[in-house]
Known about the structure:
The structure is a homodimer. The longest helix of chain A has 16 residues, at 105-120. Chain A is built from four helices and seven strands. A seven-stranded mixed beta sheet of chain A has the order 1-2-3-4-5-7-6, sandwiched between helices. Chain A is of the alpha+beta class. Helices cover 30% and strands 33% of the residues of chain A. Chain A has a domain at 7-124: Gcn5-related N-acetyltransferase (GNAT) (Aminopeptidase, 3-Layer(aba) Sandwich). Chain A has helices spanning 17-30, 45-57, 105-120, 135-143, and strands at 7-11, 62-68, 71-79, 89-96, 125-131, 147-157, 163-172. At the A-B interface, strand 6 and strand 7 of A face strand 6 and strand 7 of B.
Amino acid sequence: MSEAVDxxxxxxxxxxxxxxxxxxxxxxxxxxxxxxxETGMDLTPEMLAMHLENLYESANNLxxxxxxxxxxxGNASVKSSQEHRVAHIGEVGISILKEFWGIGLGSLLMxxxxxxxxxxxxxxxxxxxxxAQNERAIHLYEKVGFKLEATMARGARDNQGAFLDVHxxxxxxx
Amino acid sequence: MSEAVDxxxxxxxxxxxxxxxxxxxxxxxxxxxxxxxETGMDLTPEMLAMHLENLYESANNLxxxxxxxxxxxGNASVKSSQEHRVAHIGEVGISILKEFWGIGLGSLLMxxxxxxxxxxxxxxxxxxxxxAQNERAIHLYEKVGFKLEATMARGARDNQGAFLDVHxxxxxxx
Lengths: 174, 174
């Protein structure tokens, strides 16, 4: 890291599509900690750009991008359904390039998510899944108030095929 | 119910698209018990037919249809991701027209799912969500071996907007 660090966090816009696809590829190579699919990340840049436009307009979906010195180094998402029965539930995902772990980006992104959720007037429950071995992430989620709801046996598999426990955590928004 | 009941359970094929869309609409009017989205059920019949063809070919996705006297009265699905880390996890959903509850169709469909999962050589964990108030369904799931992993606060909402607890249940396949 250079001495002068310029951090920008904002909502993603269609023009971010190309960089987001690059970020997604690099993150998926760097870490085995991912559990969920990265919805949209197998699209072409053009299709992802359209998807980003819809996200930007959505009341219960959010995609944040984090830049350090103008480089896209992380993102955070809240995904929700349009179905009435579950539209108040937002699923949180955060991914950050390994080189930029440990400098507080995860906390910044999570604070933005919580602020957005409280302002949304739609989201009443945030939930996320995280590998039980990912202690750094779990510590962050607990710090901002997420509580363990379940440990899911065989909730994921590592690259060698071994089963991993996955935590389901949630946070009520009032 | 008439006296002679002819029950057929088989995998869905593209020609079932139109009837499946009708079934989905009727079930969603009849019951407040649904939690999950019905993926694909907002498609046109033509697009759903293409989706059904892909499902039919998939090693870790299943859609069963149940006919009583040649009428489509229910379906059961197992949905899985193509992502390596979670491709062994199948999410189970069953829906049956209210008029045909209580005659054992749910058990029949679940038995077929378990048999298919055991034969799949891919599925190693089945999971499902069910409203905590849906005692009839929970009883069925427990009967075939599903265990409670979590009670998710605000896991769904009823038509009046009140929050409902939702159970997360799972069954390991070995």
